[in-house]
Design a protein that fits this description.
- By secondary structure, the chain is an alpha/beta fold.
- The strands form 3 sheets. A 6-stranded mixed β-sheet has the order 5-4-3-6-7-10, sandwiched between helices.
- Helix 3 packs antiparallel against helix 4.
- The longest helix has 23 residues.
- It is globular and about 85 Å long.
- It starts with 17 loop residues before the first helix and ends in a 5-residue tail after the last helix.
Length: about 300
């Protein structure tokens, strides 16, 4: 008698393996400043309110709700004190996927979509409001999934991300500004891009901060962008502008490139951190599990 193998469970989405999805559902995005809206949610606000998490006491005043009087203290001190609690509010999580031509190199675009799906699941599992935008400068517009909440919205999230196509020459800073023109609400924005732009990131990061959004700038680069090898004379072609650059082989050009790339990376990180944001560079060749459960957790992006 032969025992038939157990049937393989179908994948919920092509973006994330089922085992990764199960682990992601238990994670939450970990903002530093907790910019929140007044709707109820899971994130603790900066002001007092009503939840189960105790904060402090204050003296009773006429008109206060006697349900919040601490009667144990009253019995000892014969003076009424009101218990204060942290208020839990809803955080709006915005995901911005760079879908320009430069992202079509060495799996960067596919990795950006995987990470967008993971961040979206974290938000929906935590009862936060989640919206997603993709920008590729086709007629200067973005495609957008309106804000959704709850686990039941995962299907809409996955479907939207799976259908995003890459193409166009739009710089990421223009995409950020286009997203902000349609966005409403405080929270955080996760920008998934290679950040290889000639644009003004200072202005766009300022606008993000002014909008009450904490910036998570996640730079996704290809392996040869991080560790290039030049063995012969080459002609490099910019995938978005079409401009060319002839390069002769030699260690000096690679060293110069690495110095420039690392300086630019530090520049973007400084722009983000000076506006209470964060920036992290990752390789598209690294296993998704390593990025999610090692890199992002060690940097306290998620918890």
């Amino acid at each position: 008698m032969e025992i038939a193998p157990a049937p393989t469970k179908a994948r919920v989405t092509s973006l994330l393996p089922n085992d990764v999805l199960a682990r992601v559902e238990r994670l939450r995005i970990n903002p530093q400043k907790r910019y929140t809206n007044r709707s109820r949610g899971e994130h603790v606000a900066q002001r007092s309110g009503s939840s189960i998490e105790f904060k402090d006491y204050r003296d009773y005043s006429d008109g206060d709700d006697i349900r919040f009087v601490d009667w144990n203290i009253f019995s000892r001190l014969h003076r009424p004190y009101i218990k204060l609690f942290h208020e839990e509010e809803e955080m709006h999580i915005v995901l911005l996927v760079d879908a320009s031509n430069s992202m079509k190199f060495e799996g960067k675009f596919e990795r950006a979509k995987e990470l967008a799906a993971a961040f979206g699941v974290m938000g929906l599992s935590g009862t936060e409001k989640v919206s997603i935008c993709a920008f590729n400068q086709r007629e200067g517009r973005i495609t957008r999934l309106r804000p959704h909440t709850g686990r039941s919205s995962r299907r809409a999230l996955f479907s939207f991300i799976e259908q995003i196509d890459a193409g166009g020459d739009g710089p990421v800073d223009v995409g950020i500004e286009a997203m902000l023109r349609e966005h409403r609400g405080r929270g955080c924005v996760v920008v998934l891009s290679d950040f290889l732009t000639q644009g003004d990131l200072r202005r766009s990061f300022n606008l993000v901060y002014s909008a009450g959004l904490e910036l998570f700038a996640l730079q996704v680069l290809g392996p040869t962008e991080l560790e290039p090898e030049v063995n012969n004379d080459l002609r490099l072609v910019d995938s978005e502008t079409g401009l060319t650059l002839d390069v002769s082989s030699g260690g000096d050009i690679v060293k110069l490139y690495q110095e420039y790339r690392e300086a630019f990376q530090r520049h973007v990180e400084a722009l983000a951190t000076s506006r209470n944001g964060r920036m992290l560079t990752t390789s598209a060749k690294d296993p998704l599990e390593y990025v999610l459960f090692d890199q992002l957790r060690r940097r306290a992006w998620i918890r």
